[in-house]
């Protein structure tokens, strides 16, 4: 199948129908996207009632990053039917914005009113430590792309002139902080990648108000808000951003930090998720 040609909402509806057939559920409540660093926390959420390879649902691109297992699980958490997406695809793999947000659109078509987006990120604000989870309070979309580009301005769907005043639900952030009062909050800047930043770029981002920097999440958050879903965003700080320490950035170190944090992340998600539906 070519990558996401035609009406993306029709493709998402078809994927949601295929998912409903396999989960035997006509309604799902919450979707969680486990980004790099968070996937090892999946098992802490409880046993999967079923696990479906994304390739069986249509509309999902072939993954191109090793370590991303392309599947979605149904897990019951506190009476909620939670769809757990193990991994995501990124712009830097060469995928279109429509492909990047297809999981979120599918989850919403499958009934989810709340979308939890997790990622690994570099820490810009001083004091943010590798291994620390941070609530995303707002974002800077510096990818130069939008999942809403090209959508009909006159059709029956929601307007693409989406209000982004509160992308990351204040109610859900408050709820998460009640569960874990240690949680910091920060503004997440998304760049296209895949290269990490120069020290000059990090100084620019810090001046522009960014606390965290990464290569994902913002397009999915925009797509979710366009369709009226509530969004909770969580970053795992896996490295101090370029030029802010005497270390060079190494993808292997980043993954190792994430593995070490997995147990804490699993516990965090398991305490937050029952409340967010
Ligand atoms: I993990 O320092 C992770 N992802 N852009 N910069 C960007 N993405 C990241 C970084 C980082 N660390």
In short, what is this structure?
By secondary structure, the protein is an alpha/beta fold. It has helices at 8-23, 97-100, 102-109, 170-179, 199-207, 218-226, 251-276; strands at 30-34, 50-53, 71-77, 80-86, 114-123, 133-141, 184-190, 212-214, 230-240. The chain has a single domain, classed as Rossmann fold (3-Layer(aba) Sandwich), CATH 3.40.50.
What does this entry look like structurally?
The chain has a single domain (8-149, 165-276), classed as Rossmann fold, CATH 3.40.50. It is of the alpha/beta class and 277 residues long. The mean pLDDT is 91. The chain is 30% helix and 23% strand. α5 (199-207) links the parallel β7 (184-190) and β8. It binds 8-iodo-guanine (8IG).
Q: How many strand units?
A: 9
List the strand order in the largest sheet.
Answer: 5-8-7-6-9
User: Overall pLDDT, averaged?
Assistant: 91
**How would a crystallographer describe the biggest sheet?**
5 strands, mixed, barrel
- What fraction of residues sit in β-strands? 15-25%
Distance between the termini: 34 Å
In CATH, what is the homologous superfamily?
Nucleoside phosphorylase domain
SSE layout and pairing:
Elements: H1 8-23, E1 30-34, E2 50-53, E3 71-77, E4 80-86, H2 97-100, H3 102-109, E5 114-123, E6 133-141, H4 170-179, E7 184-190, H5 199-207, E8 212-214, H6 218-226, E9 230-240, H7 251-276
Parallel strand pairs: 1-4, 1-5, 5-9, 6-7, 7-8
Antiparallel strand pairs: 2-3, 3-4, 5-8, 6-9
Helix pairs in contact: 1-3, 3-6, 4-7
Give me some keywords for this one.
9 strands; alpha/beta; 23% strand; 7 helices; binds 8-iodo-guanine; five-stranded mixed β-barrel; Rossmann fold
